[in-house]
User: Which sequence fits this backbone?
């Protein structure tokens, strides 16, 4: 969270990420960006637009469509003393690099008994909602959060989009940054001199007392919208932005549940074996006696993402569903 | 058709053996009648019925051991209103297998039963209809001494939620939770108050006190049985020369009007409170296999009720009260205890119990600790006895004080220190 | 290359090019060390001192020994799960390697890796990678970092013929050639990807043609001949260090033992193995050197004695090592201190 | 105040303390506290009520003179004069 009292400005999430990349490359000569279409194309989501001209081809590297190859190369470069930012176009394609992320980045430190750490940052777009169907709409933030050895962050605000990258680069271990593609156009207020933010704690984005909504990334925005609607009905929802899915800051949500006694987790990932399941389990393990209602989850419906708009909308967590569930949990007959 | 089931008489009761039926088929029974005797792991227990009606079938035969929740008999209701009427197919079903006779009570009847049940403290909970309450509601209920079984939940499927407990605790009743009346001494479990360690589980283990002497007897039985089963007691006893205290009390009482006079038991309780500040280990609980001494000293004072039974409401923060405050407090407690209007915290917050049976001429009291407390102090009658002090023989008013303490929580040395402190304080009554 | 007049002539006579006595002894000793060390490993495996997977390098010693002669201490190595030899020759202490296989905390990977994951930062030994093909992108990245930092270092990446069928091989070859990064790809072609022969795995069995398709400099060499390997490696390393881009060196070799300890070897016949054993890199090199008068039987006996001592020392060290305390189980999942 | 009036007050107060009892059936020399199971608190209350009803202040030292019905009447007649 910014402690700046300086002037604020409007900025999009996309611009915030771009500013973070530019800033990191300018500040540290070891940092470079590589990935598919990050240079001449300007980035699949236009995040790195203009950076090749600005920073030159030594720092902005277009790669062939070889996810495993260039993610692995990023790991090697990190081992070799560089601080690469590897952009995987979307998390769907990261599965082609899953071997490198899981079998190398996540385990090198451990396998070498602490000798070789891998200070790599891998950015990838995540999430659905753009009618691009099953192979381009996955939300794998929570899926990667299963893996010890990597850190998983999901910035939901322009402030985090701007500030998490530098902290991730300074981290000695692999950090995966998931940028929900639905957020790139989101505009937010950001301090002119906004800088790094931590990547190991959750934030209460809205204080409340009746129920805790636990969410992250694009679902956080929906949760905040739902909380506004609920406030008009007299239901005061506390909204938590997890920010980091691994390591998970359970203290923040457990304290909140200790206060509100109810929890709804909103997770764009699928329900089975999800990060929402993990959070729910931790509440059972450590917050059971504070619960006044069963923990509920709103996740994506367990289908590969369909193309048709109405089906896709129905498959994703939505504001009205959040509102309905909260009403049923908190309301007179809930 | 109503089902009479093997009741659960405690969370650790899983099954029971029917010893005898006190009724036969065709007998008319009414709510509260004892209709069966059941042998449990602990003792033979008389079981009452909660329906009015006629005994239709006796399913379980004497000698049979059945799990809790097993249907033992069917009671046919007579002269029922429309809502309670047997379904039209009843004639065909009467005497038919149990399964077919299952009945879903209409909502109004369920409410009525709940209200009835509320006044029926001995109602054994049917294990097949497990109490549905949220964990937080259970925690709150335990902290505030609310008996969940008396509440009607407003949550899904009638689950009791925190709001139901809070409403009961604040005296604002929900429609069907009338009997959770705060003014009623419905709860007898000396459960730690809010911010205290995990309390006793709620439910049947938590004995309750009510107007019904039999019910109170059973509640006391349950608590004492638990005490005897779980608490390894040790006993220490000492004789205390009470002459200085009594002399001091006499002079104090001379300064007071008759209404303000102080009974001898008051300085004794005050002395217990002060002694506990020196041996705090005896003040508290044994919960979850853990000794949990309490900072606040709330002394439960055993009061016999005229209708039978006893109750031990707490003198809260006894160590901080003056003699006059304590007397006033005790007068108030006794009056309200006998009128059945104790407050919840008084019923649940005791951290130790004092019992004084001297009025009846008893010399020595060997008490049974009230779980989860870890000590009980007993006072007998003050008698004149020969007493040697400084090599001089004289006659002194002597009190026998005993300590029953939980050996899991403390050892004899600590107990001895307590009695020694008690004695010392009573030799310097000005400290009181 | 060290050469001394008279010895050089003798060596040439023996058909051993450019190898003087001292170097010959060194090469021979290196190969014998691997062979004897691993024989001990097999024994200890049977005695249940070593567990997990154990892949032995028997027959392939000339590749590691030959190639590693060409590298300097600044260079980096990325190896596979059959890497005991590479680690030994690179200079990782035999004791630390043996202790690692014992699972002891004094092992080179603190007992976290075992036989397949030997690591050493001092010698830039980036491990035993046990995902076939998984090390190649890593090597490209290490080389990329050197190139970006203007360091004239070489990353040497070992892999087998099996890896050539992996997508990661092709991605890495393409990336390395595209970016002209200083990687020496060393394919240890022992003809079997575990139990499946090359001919059942590859449409094109001449693996150098794969490299050629990326326009990458390449050469195939007799992997049973340590001098030939060394010579080819020196040439390749010079090329790479010269900034000419990556190089693909195929060493044609053969594994005498089973793939791992639990392998019935149903996929090849004994005659084939016996035929290859006639080309044993140690036997052939040692005969040539003796025939050429470069070394004596006594030299050989001395080597055997010294190696036996070294192996015994390693075992004694591993035996004496300690177990990492259980409290440390979750260490090294994340770094304990930030690296600058 | 007559003896009968005093007795009536005593019965009323005892009945209040021990509602289930029948004080009028007490024998004149029966120990009242024992017969009606009156503890020291109730006893104190009894004396307080006597004070309220009859204006008699009974010092603690005189409690021993009021064990039976006849003792009570005798004492109260004397002091309520």
Assistant:
């Amino acid at each position: 969270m910014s402690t700046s009292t300086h002037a604020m400005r409007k900025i999009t999430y996309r611009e915030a990420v771009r500013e973070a990349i530019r800033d990191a490359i300018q500040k540290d000569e070891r940092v470079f960006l590589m990935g598919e279409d990050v240079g001449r194309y300007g980035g699949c989501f236009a995040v790195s637009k203009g950076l090749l001209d600005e920073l030159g081809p030594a720092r902005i590297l277009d790669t062939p469509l070889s996810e495993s190859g260039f993610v692995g190369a990023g790991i090697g470069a990190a081992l070799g003393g560089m601080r690469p930012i590897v952009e995987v176009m979307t998390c769907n394609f990261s599965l082609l690099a899953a071997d490198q992320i899981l079998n190398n980045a996540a385990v090198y430190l451990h396998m070498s008994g602490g000798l070789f750490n891998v200070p790599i940052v891998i950015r990838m777009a995540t999430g659905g909602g753009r009618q691009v169907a099953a192979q381009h709409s996955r939300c794998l933030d929570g899926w990667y959060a299963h893996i010890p050895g990597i850190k998983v962050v999901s910035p939901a605000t322009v402030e985090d989009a701007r500030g998490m990258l530098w902290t991730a680069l300074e981290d000695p271990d692999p950090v995966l940054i998931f940028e929900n593609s639905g957020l790139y156009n989101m505009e937010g207020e950001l301090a002119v001199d906004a800088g790094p933010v931590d990547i190991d704690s959750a934030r209460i984005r809205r204080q409340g007392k009746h129920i805790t909504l636990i969410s992250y990334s694009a679902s956080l925005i929906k949760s905040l919208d739902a909380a506004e609607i609920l406030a008009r009905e007299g239901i005061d929802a506390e909204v938590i932005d997890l920010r980091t899915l691994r390591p998970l800051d359970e203290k923040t949500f457990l304290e909140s549940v200790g206060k509100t006694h109810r929890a709804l987790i909103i997770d764009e990932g699928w329900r089975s074996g999800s990060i929402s399941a993990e959070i729910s389990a931790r509440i059972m393990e450590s917050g059971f006696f504070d619960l006044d209602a069963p923990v509920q989850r709103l996740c994506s419906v367990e289908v590969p993402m369909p193309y048709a708009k109405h089906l896709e909308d129905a498959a994703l967590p939505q504001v009205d569903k959040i509102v309905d569930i909260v009403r049923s949990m908190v309301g007179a007959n809930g | 058709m109503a089902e009479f089931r093997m009741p659960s008489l405690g969370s650790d009761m899983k099954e029971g053996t029917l010893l005898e039926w006190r009724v036969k088929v065709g007998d008319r029974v009414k709510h509260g009648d004892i209709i069966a005797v059941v042998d449990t792991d602990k003792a033979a227990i008389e079981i009452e019925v909660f329906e009015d009606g006629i005994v239709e079938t006796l399913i379980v035969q004497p000698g049979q051991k059945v799990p809790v929740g097993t249907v033992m008999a069917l009671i046919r209701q007579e002269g029922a209103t429309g809502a309670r009427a047997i379904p039209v197919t009843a004639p065909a079903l009467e005497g038919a297998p149990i399964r077919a006779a299952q009945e879903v009570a209409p909502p109004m009847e369920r409410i009525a039963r709940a209200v009835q049940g509320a006044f029926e403290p001995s109602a054994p909970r049917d294990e097949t209809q497990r109490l549905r309450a949220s964990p937080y509601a259970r925690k709150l209920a335990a902290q505030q001494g609310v008996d969940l079984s008396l509440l009607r939940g407003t949550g899904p499927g009638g689950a009791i939620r925190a709001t139901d407990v809070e409403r009961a605790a604040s005296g604002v009743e929900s429609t069907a939770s009338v009997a959770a009346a705060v003014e009623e001494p419905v709860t007898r479990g000396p459960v730690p108050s809010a911010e205290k360690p995990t309390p006793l589980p709620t439910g049947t283990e938590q004995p309750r006190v009510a107007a019904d002497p039999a019910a109170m007897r059973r509640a006391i039985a349950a608590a004492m049985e638990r005490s005897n089963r779980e608490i390894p007691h040790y006993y220490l006893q000492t004789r205390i020369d009470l002459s200085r205290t009594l002399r001091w009390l006499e002079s104090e009482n001379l300064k007071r009007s008759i209404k303000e006079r102080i009974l001898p038991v008051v300085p004794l309780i005050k002395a217990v409170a002060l002694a506990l500040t020196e041996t705090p280990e005896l003040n508290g609980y044994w919960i979850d296999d853990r000794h949990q001494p309490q900072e606040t000293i709330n002394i439960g004072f055993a009061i016999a009720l005229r209708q039978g039974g006893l109750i031990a409401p707490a003198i809260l923060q006894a160590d901080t009260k003056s003699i006059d405050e304590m007397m006033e407090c005790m007068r108030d407690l006794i009056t309200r205890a006998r009128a059945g209007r104790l407050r919840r915290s008084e019923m649940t917050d005791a951290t130790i119990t004092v019992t004084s049976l001297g009025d009846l001429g008893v010399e020595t009291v060997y008490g049974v600790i009230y779980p989860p407390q870890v000590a009980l102090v007993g006072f007998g009658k003050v008698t004149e006895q020969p007493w040697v002090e400084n090599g001089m023989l004289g006659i002194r008013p002597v009190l026998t004080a005993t300590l029953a303490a939980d050996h899991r929580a403390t050892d004899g040395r600590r107990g001895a220190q307590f009695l020694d402190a008690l004695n010392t304080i009573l030799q310097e009554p000005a400290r009181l | 290359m060290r050469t001394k007049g008279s010895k050089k002539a003798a060596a040439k006579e023996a058909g051993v090019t450019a190898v003087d006595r001292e170097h010959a002894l060194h090469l021979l000793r290196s190969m014998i060390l691997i062979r004897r060390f691993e024989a001990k490993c097999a024994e200890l495996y049977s005695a249940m001192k070593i567990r997990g997977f154990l892949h032995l390098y028997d027959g392939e010693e000339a590749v590691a020994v030959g190639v590693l002669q060409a590298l300097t201490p600044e260079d980096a190595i990325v190896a596979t799960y059959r890497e005991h030899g590479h680690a030994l020759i690179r200079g990782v202490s035999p004791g630390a390697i043996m202790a690692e296989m014992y699972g002891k905390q004094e092992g080179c990977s603190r007992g976290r890796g075992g036989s397949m994951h030997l690591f050493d930062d001092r010698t830039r030994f980036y491990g035993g990678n046990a995902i076939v093909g998984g090390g190649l992108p890593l090597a490209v990245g290490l080389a990329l970092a050197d190139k970006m930092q203007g360091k004239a270092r070489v990353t040497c990446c070992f892999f087998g013929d099996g890896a050539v069928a992996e997508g990661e091989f092709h991605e890495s070859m393409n990336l390395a050639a595209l970016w002209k990064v200083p990687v020496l790809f060393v394919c240890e072609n022992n003809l079997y990807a575990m139990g499946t022969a090359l001919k059942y795995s590859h449409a094109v069995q001449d693996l150098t043609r794969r490299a050629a398709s990326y326009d990458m400099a390449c050469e195939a060499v007799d992997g049973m001949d340590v001098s030939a390997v060394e010579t080819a490696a020196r040439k390749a390393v010079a090329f790479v260090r010269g900034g000419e881009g990556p190089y693909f060196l195929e060493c044609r070799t053969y594994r005498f033992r089973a793939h791992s300890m639990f392998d019935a070897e149903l996929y090849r016949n004994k005659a084939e193995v016996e035929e290859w054993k006639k080309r044993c890199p140690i036997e052939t090199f040692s005969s040539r050197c003796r025939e050429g008068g470069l070394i004596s039987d006594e030299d050989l006996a001395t080597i055997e004695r010294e190696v036996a001592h070294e192996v015994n020392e390693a075992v004694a060290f591993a035996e004496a090592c300690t177990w990492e305390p259980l409290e440390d189980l979750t260490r090294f999942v994340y770094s304990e201190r930030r690296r600058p | 105040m007559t003896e009968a009036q005093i007795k009536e007050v005593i019965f009323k107060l005892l009945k209040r303390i021990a509602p289930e009892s029948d004080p009028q059936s007490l024998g004149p020399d029966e120990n009242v506290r024992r017969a009606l199971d009156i503890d020291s608190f109730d006893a104190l209350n009894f004396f307080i009520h006597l004070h309220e009803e009859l204006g008699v202040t009974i010092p603690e030292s005189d409690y021993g003179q009021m064990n039976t019905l006849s003792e009570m009447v005798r004492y109260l007649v004397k002091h309520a004069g």
Summary: Chain B has three domains: 2-104, 128-221, 234-431.
